[in-house]
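Forum: Protein Structure Q&A
Topic: Joint prediction for protein chains with partners

I've read a bunch of threads here and the consensus seems to be that you should model interacting components together rather than docking separate models afterwards. I'd like to see that in practice. Below is the full input, 506 residues plus whatever partners are listed. Could one of the regulars post the assembled result?
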Amino acid sequence: MTEVDELVRGTLRRHAEEAPDGARLLAAVHERSRRLGRRRRLAVAAVVAALVVSGGAAFAAVAPTGGPRPAPPAGVASATASAPAPTTSPTPGRAPSSPAALRFGSPGYALPTFPFRPVVTPVGGLADPVVTLAAGELTAFYAARDGERGADVTIRVGPRTPSFDAGPAHETRQQVRGKAATLRTVVVAPANRLSLYWLERPGQWVRVDTDDTLTDAELVRLADALAPAAVPVLMPFRFDVVPAGADLDTSTRSVVAFRPSGVTCALRGPQPLTGATVPVGRYRGTVRHTGTGATVTVALDDVPATLVVQVPARYPVSDADLVRFAAGIQLTADAEPGS
Amino acid sequence: MPDGFDEFVVARGPALLRYAHLLCGNAHLAEDLVQEVLARVHRRWARIEHLDAPEAYVRRAVTREFLSWRRRLASREAVLAEVPDRPSGADPAGQLAARDEMWTLLAGLPRTQRAVLVLRFYDDLADDQIADVLGCAPSTVRAHASRALARLRSALARRSTVEVHRD
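Posted by a regular:
Agreed with the consensus. Here's the joint model:
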């Protein structure tokens, strides 16, 4: 074994111990499973709406002035930065050669919408969609209303040709919406995976995934009958300020990430704070700087939950700016803590 | 739902989280990944628990879900050249820093290469077992591992060269 091999092994073993302990994993999985089994709704309990991270801004169901603007209905992760005016200065004392300091400004990105919806309902029914954004690509997840008889359906829209794991698969040519499409079947227990994909228009690939609960013909029919729509991506937070020039990169029920900075905001279950605390809006939090970046952890005692904001080390940020950013994050009805 | 599922999650959940954490390089994403896979597994547990190796099935699912998150970690994958400052010397603190540097470099690898390294060096799987998890040929696994290690060596060598020039 070479020195690099040993270094990789040691690194992995050391960082494995930094993984979440899984104390709440079972509860979180059951909760997520229930959501899948039921009709997953975009709007959860209205009581969540009352949960506000910062005391300064009251929660409202509509976007605040200066908030994200709706994207065009056919938009596919069409966020465009408006380069908001910077409002902060670099951390004092940084060397001139340091990477550019993180700056914050009013949100200027477009809120993406998913451009299709199925109008053919397969056996078992489909619940309302949950639209998420991952690394700039939109996914609409439709849970089967009847988990025993039906199958979940996932539709993805993106600018790149769909890619798949290497491995044995059977492919057939199909015709979908007047375009040449590929139906890919992977034989795997306990249910074969079906993926149907085609180029809807230049720069827009559509991919529909399900399992063999649906027949090939049923899947093609479902895809064939997709109708134009503008289903909004779920957004667990609203932001008073965001990293300047930021686009939304990821938005799930518990995580929002921005590009290109890689700033991540995550809602987690309640955790006790350790170390000295500082006020963050009407809550208390801790601020830490490590080799990998800066982290502010906020105890949302009345939710209860914990907000964790991380800024990569390559973007220096002052404690004051970090705290101000965290204090301006408000939970929406889409928010649900991860474990 | 069968109690066997709960027992499985309690017994094997922490190990799955450690595995996912090494794949993602991010605790939040690891939790999302494992929760998502287990929630889907939950609904089909009655069929999965009768497989020969349910855990292997779940690990495969975690791995493939991770690989299907296209560009989710794109910003991290783009920073291979930006490694943190590393103290010189062979002291424990220096070794620790070297591991932090390696962690950053691992985060910059393409995900399939990273998955191969995790399966080989953390799970101690043989190449044919890794191939089974990834659904590819053992020769492909060897190619991924070779490219990944070469890339890491190259990055470390560049780093060392820069330090020598600084000295």
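Chain B touches chain A through 70 residues (CB under 8 Å).
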